[in-house]
Amino acid sequence: MRVEPFDVRFHPLAMGRTYRHRRKKQQESRPLSLGSDEKYLDLVKWLSDQQWLPTCKLSPVLFKETGRGMVAKENIPAQSILASLPSSILITVQTVAKSVLSDVFLNTNCCFSTQQILSAFLVWQKHLGKDSHWLPYLNILPNRYYSPVFCSDEVVNAFPNMIGDKIYRMQAKIEELYDSLIEAIPDKCCDHCDKPYNEIFSQECFKWAWFTVNSRSVYLSPLVNDSCNINLTDANSIALAPFLDMINHSDRAKVNVLFDETNRSYSIMTLVPYKKDEEVFINYGGHSNEKLYLEYGFVLPTNRNDSVSFTSEDIFKATKSVFPTAELPKNRYNFLKSHGFLTDLYCSNDGLSWNTRVLIFVSFEPLTVELGEIQKVIFSASFRLPSQEIMNSILTQLFSRKISLYNRSIDSLKKLSTLESHCSITINCGIELLQKYLAILDKNASSYSIQ
Hints:
Oligomer: single chain
GO molecular function, one term: protein-lysine N-methyltransferase activity
Number of helices: 17
Largest sheet: 5 strands, mixed
Shape: globular
Strand content: 5-15%
Protein name: SET domain-containing protein 4
Domain SET: 54-285
Organism: Lygus hesperus (Western plant bug)
CATH superfamily of the domain at 91-240: set domain protein methyltransferase, domain 1
Distance between the termini: 69 Å
CATH topology of the domain at 91-240: set domain protein methyltransferase, domain 1
Pfam families: SET (PF00856)
Helix content: 40-55%
Number of strands: 13
Mean pLDDT: 87
Low-confidence stretches: 1-28
C-alpha cells in the first residue's frame, strides 16, 4: 500500500499554536470586501443612471488600519484613468446656486467661502432624507470623523501647545463660518419639513458637513468651474466627487487631474501602475502627518513630509542652557527676522532644516563677532555648523526637552483614552503621531552621535 506524504502546509492544526496565531492575525488584518454592500451597490446604480461609466475595475474594501479604500480588481497600467465623472455628478457652488438653497446665498450681500457653501448644501440634502437626489451618495459618507477638533478641551490640552493651539484655531474657524452662515439664513420654515431653517442648520450638522467637504473635496480649476452669482471669499476651485472620493490618500501616489471640456467630465489619471488586489491611491498634496491628523483624522505609517517643529525660543533656551552668557542682540535678531530665519525651524528624517542650523550658529556666536562677519559665513559656500562637541551639547538640550514634552503628552493621552472612550480612536491616533515625532528625534540624535 502506498502511503501519501503528509503535506503540513494545508493542515493548520499540524503547525501548532504559533502557526494558528499567525494565521489568525493574517485573517484579522485581511481587508474586508465591501463590493456587495447594499449602499455601495446603490451608489453605483445611481451613478450609472447619471451616465457614469467605470474606467477600470475598482472595488471598495475595509482596511483595519486605514478604513475604507479602493483596490484594483485587475492590473492597472500607468497613465490609466482611475475614475471619470460627468460634471453633472459633481457637487459645486453652481449646484448650490441652482438648488432651493439659492435663497440663502443669492439674496444677501454677505460673502461665503466655497467650503462653507458646499457644507451647507450637504446639511440641507441630509435633512431631506429619502427625498434628496443625492441620497445614494449621502449614504456612503462617514457618520463621524476622527479629527481632534471633535475632542474635549481636556484632550486638546493634553497635546503639546504647538498642536493644541492649531486644534483650537480650527475649532474657532469652523465656529466663525457657522455663525456667519446662520446670520445669512432667512427667518422662515422649510417647505419640506416645516422646521425653522436655523434648526436644520445646527452647529453639529454643520461641523460634520465641513469635515466631509474638507476631507473629500477635489480640486477643480476655476477656469472650468461654472461661474455663479454667489459672492465668494475665495476661488471657486473645489467640488465633491461621488465615488472618486472613496480612494484614499498616499504621499507616494502620483496622479494627474484632467477636465475634458468637450464632454464636461472630470478624471483622475494614475501615473504609477497597480497590481491586482493592491490598494489604489490619490494624493491630497504634500501633507505632513500632523496636518493629516488635524484635518482628516488619520496618520500614514510612513510620511516623507513629517518633521518636528521648533520655535526660536526653543533654540535660544537650548543654547543658553549650554552657554549661560549667550545673548541675541537686537541687530542679530532683526537680521534673522528680516531674512526669514525665525521660521521653518524643524528636524526631519533628512536632518536639521537650514534655518535651524543658521539660528543655532547665530545664537551661540560670541558678541565680539560683528554681524557683518556672521552674514559672510552664513551666505558663503563654506558655511559650517559649530564643532561636534558644541552641537552635541545644544542638540542634547533641544531634543531632550522635546522628548520629555512628547512623553508627558503621551502619558496624559493614554490616561484620557480610557476615560473618553468616544474619542479613543482619535486619541490613539494622536499618540501614534507623537511617537513618530519621537522616532524622528531619535534618528537625528543618532546622526549627531548624541548619547
